[in-house]
Design brief:
By secondary structure, this protein is mainly beta. It folds into two domains: 5-188 and 342-359, Distorted Sandwich (Beta-galactosidase, Chain A, domain 5), CATH 2.70.98; 196-334, Beta-galactosidase, Chain A, domain 5, CATH 2.70.98.10. Helix content is 4%, strand content 38%. The chain is built from two helices and 30 strands. The protein has helices spanning 5-12, 251-256; strands spanning 17-19, 26-31, 37-41, 46-53, 59-61, 84-85, 91-92, 96-99, 102-105, 114-115, 128-132, 136-143, 154-162, 167-176, 180-181, 185-186, 189-190, 204-207, 209-213, 226-227, 239-240, 260-265, 276-279, 285-291, 295-299, 308-309, 315-316, 322-327, 342-343, 349-359. The strands form eight sheets. A nine-stranded antiparallel β-sheet has the order 11-12-13-14-30-24-23-18-21, with no helix packed on it. A six-stranded antiparallel β-sheet has the order 17-28-25-22-19-20, with no helix packed on it. Strands 1-2-3-4-5 form a five-stranded antiparallel β-sheet, with helices on one face. Strand 4 (46-53) and strand 5 (59-61) form a beta hairpin. The longest helix has 8 residues, at 5-12. The radius of gyration is 19 Å and the shape is globular.
Length: 360
């Protein structure tokens, strides 16, 4: 979308929301003084648009999504566009994990594994709006004990804050009534060209990680941590996403059908260190990702296949969006050698992700 700057400023002055025909699920618009606008819906806690000016001053919407809230409902489209994922982002092997000697059997919704909290994960449930104004929105999820067979009643919050220097600061927190596991993330699909007719393969990616967690043919982590050096997984120096994405003689790209892997960050949980950076040479729009999480899942839109029509009537083809999901490693509950995702009563889960936009 290319919105004239004067119109964008007028729109940004409105911190209003528009109702859908489904009472309670709405769009909320955040805006700042720098000409940036972010729209969020409480359904699934989703970012539905990020409108940011490019090098030419023209504002573009740089995430995939839908025009109407009801298009996000699972009976209409089974997608994770922009979602706040819970309880557990990414995959849990065979939908099983053991905690304190008790085995839990979760729904299996992806190659025999539990993906993104199961078929009715939080991305397909409405969050409650706790606070909302022109700069931030705080959402609450009350997840009962046994939600998709996860133990403990969990109360979780997601807060989106838009700053004047074009940062989207996402803060997660959660508490539980019984020992459980939790791993939250945002699942926005970025296309910094602002044109979903274009692939993200020409955008340049940097990942501050010297290792990654390989997967098998069902996209499940093997438990190994391998170096990226000398492989197509090496983004320690920025280069185009598509430079080596189709080198399927490299088993990991074949297994992932492209990039669909977790990178082990070298940031040591510091919010002052860039975890990843995505840059579009055409528009000049640059996105830096900061997080206190140990990993980032990079998914290059491999399963977009032209069957979904999104905003502005655009048909989403393969690799028209890329996800940068800050999180703990996939299947951590079954891999005790990795950072723990266990949350116990009396503790509070915290996680931060910052999407910082600028122009080069």
């Amino acid at each position: 979308m290319k919105t004239p700057r004067i119109l964008l400023v007028a729109l940004c002055a409105l911190a209003a929301f528009s109702c859908t025909k489904e009472e309670g699920n709405r769009f909320y618009k955040l805006s700042n003084t720098s000409g940036m606008e972010v729209t969020v819906t409480n359904f699934g806690g989703r970012i539905t648009s990020i409108v940011v000016p490019g090098r030419d001053g023209i504002a573009r919407d740089v995430v995939l999504g839908f025009d109407k809230v009801e298009d996000y409902y699972p009976e209409n489209n089974q997608t994770d566009f922009g979602a706040s994922i819970g309880r557990y982002a990414n995959r849990i092997a065979q939908g099983k994990f053991t905690l304190d000697g008790v085995e839990y059997d979760l729904p299996k919704n992806n190659f025999g594994h539990c993906l993104h909290g199961g078929p009715t994960g939080w991305q397909y449930q409405p969050y409650k709006v706790v606070e909302a104004d022109a700069r931030h929105i705080k959402l609450r999820m009350d997840s009962p004990d046994g939600d998709n067979n996860f133990p403990g009643a969990v109360t979780a919050f997601v807060t989106y804050t838009l700053t004047d220097d074009n940062k989207i600061d996402i803060a997660y927190e959660a508490t539980t009534t019984a020992p459980t596991i939790i791993n939250m993330t945002n699942h926005s699909y970025f296309n910094l060209s602002g044109d979903a007719d274009k692939s993200i393969c020409d955008e340049e990616l940097y990942i501050n990680a010297s290792a990654f967690t390989p997967v098998d043919a069902t996209y499940m982590t093997t438990g190994e941590i391998l170096p990226v050096e000398g492989t197509p997984m090496d983004f320690t120096v920025a280069h185009k996403v598509g430079d080596r994405i189709d080198e399927f003689d490299f088993e990991q790209l074949k297994n992932g059908n492209g990039y669909d892997h977790n990178w082990v960050l070298d940031t040591n949980g510091s919010l002052d260190e860039v975890a990843a950076e995505l840059y579009c040479p055409e528009t000049g729009i640059d996105l830096k990702v900061y997080t206190d999480e140990p990993g980032i899942q990079v998914y290059s839109g491999n399963f977009l296949d032209g069957t979904v029509t999104g905003k502005y009537g655009k048909v989403y083809q393969q690799r028209t969006g890329i996800c940068l999901e800050t999180q703990h490693y996939p299947d951590s509950p079954n891999k005790p050698q990795w950072p723990s995702v266990v949350l116990r009563p009396g503790e509070t889960y915290h996680s931060r992700c910052i999407f910082a936009f600028s122009v080069k």
